[in-house]
């Protein structure tokens, strides 16, 4: 059987399947461009989401969907932020199943965490990282890539202060979103990125130990990518090295999914873990789409992408 975007089914039934989309970055404003000049279609992006939900529902066998973050764009007029987030959430709610969201920098430009987490139905409204297990053999670990961040926390919050100190130490530019002069992987030390804090790292370690004890395979999800092979250096998590050190201690993690770097990417790291950064809905010119679903097997994930989201076979290496 043939799929869109070139995959060929291997005949076996998946254990389960789920929908994916990222970087909708909706705003009711005219089309624009990224800082680097890439076109952005702020109004069309909600149409891409509507098409995704329709497609997921038509599939009939997707047991949940994942939104990898950045639901509303930073250029959304601030007096419209709440309505814009509610409007996008309403579209996700048309999906016939649970939707797991994560927060991105653009979400945090619009609303503080205290407002976002309840609106996005996080399992615990005080914490943006969590895990869930759709079937006993698999566990999903959702990381908060803006745990240590200069955006989203109150100005006097310890995590804001830690982030500002970190940026001042690592990035000498007065514009902390500018990578000018930063070399190679240091180009990730930008204000629109963030890091995973110590408590969350401990939680990640404990959760992966628990998954190992339960003989579960793990998919890690984070808005901010974790491997330089799958993303521009400017879009990497500040402490991707620390997070990957924890992940590599365990054999259970098979795939990491990300958003944030709109062009998308795929790599296999030195320990055989797949990293798939998904293509953004925001950059779809009208008439095009970027969403997909993932078939989960015992030995691989198969991403079936639509249009600008490339299909991808991720066979487990360990
Ligand atoms: N002062 C700046 C600001 C940004 N850049 C570079 O521009 C790229 C991304 O900026 P932008 O499009 O505004 O960021 P988004 O959060 O909307 O999107 C995230 C990107 O997709 C992550 O790649 C980036 O390359 C910056 O370094 C800059 O040079 N100077």
TrEMBL record:
This is Manganese-dependent ADP-ribose/CDP-alcohol diphosphatase. Belongs to the ADPRibase-Mn family. It holds the Pfam family Metallophos. It comes from Deinandra increscens subsp. villosa. Monomer. One of its GO terms (molecular function) is CDP-glycerol diphosphatase activity. It is an enzyme of class 3 (hydrolase). Its EC number is 3.6.1.13, 3.6.1.16, 3.6.1.53. Its cofactor is Mg(2+). Keywords: Hydrolase, Metal-binding, Zinc. The keyword Nucleotidyltransferase does not apply. InterPro entries: Calcineurin-like_PHP (IPR004843), Metallo-depent_PP-like (IPR029052), MPP_ADPRM (IPR041869). It catalyses: CDP-glycerol + H2O = sn-glycerol 3-phosphate + CMP + 2 H(+); ADP-D-ribose + H2O = D-ribose 5-phosphate + AMP + 2 H(+); CDP-choline + H2O = phosphocholine + CMP + 2 H(+). Residues 17-263 form the Calcineurin-like phosphoesterase domain.
